[in-house]
């Protein structure tokens, strides 16, 4: 989304737009009719595409809501940091790049998406899995960046601690999100002195 | 399991035993027949109690699986640690005290419980909520121990980070879980040098 739209061709831009339209239509319908009460046919109709087109973008109804484009931005940004930058600084840089890349509109979408995901039991379980996968992807990016073995223990603990710390800092009403994230990173960087 | 055996008197011990029996029967039946095909009647039958007795202990079968008997022990152990200990030292001691109350049998039960929790979406979702609640409770206990405001964010981030780190190392681990946990705590205590 957003970030690299200028560098893409017309066909790719159109694809991104269709995908976005599907996601927003799905969110709108589920908000109104509930998760179980929303069908792929309805989503396709609201997005003005054929159901078969829907399946070119998403394999299931669940995957429309579980798609997380922001995590990918963070993972890629982390992977691009120079090898000699300390881990926490590299992670902070990756977060800053994510904030700078993602538009206000996309943040709002992400916030609404997460709220919806956590209110539907089936999706909440999927979110737990998604969280674990993101932690694994970040840890892999970090080991590759620093030239370590992807099976190394420490980078997994490190990324797990940061992800858990950020989640805990953001748990609760969605106010001062950016401020709380940086506060969590500062606190972890100084060795978590309470 | 076994953790709540400090409950005083014969009646208390009997209650603990019944509760224990119900939980084991619930987990065993769900592991064998699946979540949807396990009824409270079957659980009561396997536990040699009346279905109405089941409901004196748990509101539903989900609660019988998710209940964390170690939580109260851990919270009490944390609260009992002297103020001059660092948060990490206090947590480590509380964990050691808690782990010592679990029998070999109890660890086996916990492993089976985890397996079904993470293979059944409804339970995964409930466990996700339970984790968030536990992080909140531990943070509150830690703030109380240190004489801080109960909502103070640092303790919440601290416990979020610990939970995230421990989940990342426990995820898919082979062999003794405790060894990995202690290694992760050492690494965090050293300031997570990568």
In short:
Chain A is mostly helical and 194 residues long.
Can you walk me through this structure?
The complex is a heterodimer of chains A (194) and B (194). By secondary structure, chain A is mostly helical. Chain A is built from ten helices and no strands. The mean pLDDT of chain A is 90. Helices cover 72% and strands 0% of the residues of chain B. Chain B has helices spanning 9-33, 40-46, 51-57, 61-66, 70-79, 87-100, 104-117, 121-145, 153-170, 177-189. The longest helix of chain B has 25 residues, at 9-33.
* Integer tally of domains of chain A: 2
The helix/strand class of chain B is: mainly alpha
C-alpha Rg of chain B (nearest Å): 18 Å
Number of strands of chain A: 0
Oligomer: heterodimer
- Residues in helices of chain B, as a percent range: over 70%
How many H/I helical runs of chain B?
10
The structure class of chain A reads mainly alpha
Write out the CATH superfamily name of the largest domain in chain B.
Tetracycline Repressor, domain 2
Shape of chain A: globular
Low-confidence stretches of chain A: none
Average pLDDT of chain B, to the nearest integer? 89
- Beta-strand percent range of chain A: under 5%
Kindly state the percentage of residues in helix of chain A.
over 70%
Number of domain modules of chain B: 2
Question: What's the name of the CATH homologous superfamily of the largest domain in chain A?
Answer: Tetracycline Repressor, domain 2
Radius of gyration of chain A, taken over Cα atoms and rounded to an integer in Å: 18 Å
CATH class of the largest domain in chain B equals Mainly Alpha
Of all chain pairs, the largest interface belongs to: A-B, 43 and 44 residues
The SSE order of chain A reads HHHHHHHHHH
């Amino acid at each position: 989304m957003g970030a690299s739209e200028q560098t893409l061709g017309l066909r790719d831009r159109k694809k991104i737009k269709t995908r976005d339209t599907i996601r927003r239509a799905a969110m709108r319908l589920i908000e109104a009719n509930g998760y179980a009460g929303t069908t792929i046919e309805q989503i396709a109709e609201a997005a003005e595409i054929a159901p078969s087109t829907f399946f070119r973008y998403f394999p299931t109804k669940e995957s429309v809501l579980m798609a997380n484009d922001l995590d990918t931005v963070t993972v890629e940004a982390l992977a691009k940091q120079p090898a000699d930058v300390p881990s926490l600084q590299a992670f902070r840089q990756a977060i800053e790049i994510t904030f700078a890349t993602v538009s206000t509109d996309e943040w709002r979408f992400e916030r609404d998406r997460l709220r919806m995901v956590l209110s539907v039991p089936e999706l909440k379980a999927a979110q737990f899995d998604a969280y674990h996968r993101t932690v694994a992807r970040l840890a892999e990016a970090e080991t590759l960046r620093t030239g370590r073995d992807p099976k190394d223990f420490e980078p997994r603990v490190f990324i797990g601690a940061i992800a858990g710390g950020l989640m805990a800092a953001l748990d609760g009403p969605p106010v001062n999100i950016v401020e709380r994230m940086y506060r969590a990173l500062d606190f972890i960087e100084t060795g978590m002195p309470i | 399991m076994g953790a709540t055996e400090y409950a005083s008197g014969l009646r208390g011990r009997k209650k603990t035993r019944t509760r224990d029996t119900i939980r084991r029967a619930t987990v065993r039946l769900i592991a064998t027949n699946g979540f949807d095909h396990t009824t409270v009647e079957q659980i009561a039958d396997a536990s040699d109690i009346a279905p109405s007795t089941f409901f004196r202990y748990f509101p539903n079968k989900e609660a019988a699986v998710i209940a964390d008997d170690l939580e109260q022990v851990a919270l009490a152990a944390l609260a009992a640690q002297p103020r001059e200990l660092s948060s990490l030292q206090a947590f480590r001691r509380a964990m050691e005290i808690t782990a010592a109350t679990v029998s070999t049998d109890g660890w086996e039960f916990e492993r089976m419980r985890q397996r079904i929790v993470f293979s059944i979406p409804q339970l995964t979702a409930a466990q996700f909520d339970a984790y968030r609640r536990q992080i909140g409770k531990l943070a509150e206990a830690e703030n109380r121990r240190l004489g801080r405001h109960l909502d103070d964010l640092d303790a919440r981030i601290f416990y979020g980070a610990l939970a995230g780190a421990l989940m990342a190392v426990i995820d898919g681990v082979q062999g003794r879980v405790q060894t990995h946990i202690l290694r992760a705590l050492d690494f965090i205590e050293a300031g997570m040098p990568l």
